[in-house]
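Q: Convert this sequence to structure tokens.
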Amino acid sequence: MARTEGSTMKVWRRKLAVMVCCVVGASGPFVDGSRAQTDKTLVPDVRIDLSAYGLPSGFFRPDADTKCAGQIIGYRFVVWLSNQSVAVGFNTSPNCRVVPDRKVDGTARLLIFNVSGVLKAKRDLPYLADGNGEIVAEGEAMSGPSGTLLFRIESVNLDKEGRNESKSGVLLLDANLKDVARLDRFLEQTTFVNHALVFQEGFTLTGPRTYSVLDGAPPVETHRWKQDWPIGTMDRKFGEHGLAYMLCQQELRPNEYTSSNVVYANAKRRCAMTAEAQDQTVWAVPLKEEGTAAIVGILADGSVAGQINVKGSVAGRLAIWKRDQTTELLPWIPSDYDGSIQSATANMSRYAVFATSDGKLCDSFGKFCSDSGRWMIFDRRSQSPIVNRVFPKNGRAALSPDGLHYASFESGELRLYSLPKP
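A:
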């Protein structure tokens, strides 16, 4: 009996050794997303305690930006204006009503530092923060044309009759946080390379639409598009000298594919990435069966970057489509992660991604959501990321335009990092 128990224990030890070996072996750097994550972190060159600049205490509590989300507009952002200067912004006003019947008056504090951590400019911007019973979006700021900071204004106000009135606009600020221009129009999108502004003229659900592209500081109209989007257009992006869109058909009956602007659940789709230049020349790249994609942007050479959805993979693939050339697949996040590009160099030589692995349970039941994800920076010539670290969901980070630095706004600090040169 003793010998039998001893033999059994040896078998279990061997099984346990195999299990440990397999788990340890799976912890190395990933290439195609099939392996677990290994941290690749850097030590920051600069750390700035933003409480000295008015950052409210508790700003980075796990629920600070979600407790009253949709009711009160808040700002938290970090944006590079050039390779040498970075802007960080946050609301100093409350994230929730202090008293139920008293509206919140919003104030955003904007700060600009150089890469050495020296404060170069400071400004407070008042804004209408309270949704007044209407759902409001999170405050946004991003890179604008010609090195400006684009501060997006979305608010709910009462009109003369006391009714809720939604407003949208764009404020462009220079490197000293001085006004460059204010445009009280709904921003459709910005372009990938120059961050030019795209506005739709008027609003229509059908028929041709007119878009104006504004570039420079102060911005001037550089192009006007009159576009009648084909039926089945699923996604669209503007560039400085062209546009791209995803054109799809759906299988509504067996072996019969139909163009429709309505997306039908569980219907198979056939899609093609379609690019159109200013001279109206068109080229397209078909996607594989049932494939769809989100367009990231149009690069300076006219090629198009996009994130392809792949059956059985949450992450999908990152690709660059080029006219009359083979599609180039780029290094990307693990297959079981969900993420999108947060910032990138103009030629996509380097790009940064925030990704999570919470999955559908998080979407359906908030209690299954983690407070963090992963911040990854990729160099196009390397299959594994040059930065891969745990990052809080209520933090913000951005890659510099030249891809040689990144900045993070987390845990009450602005942190600046140098990246290895290519």
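The chain has one domain: 33-418.
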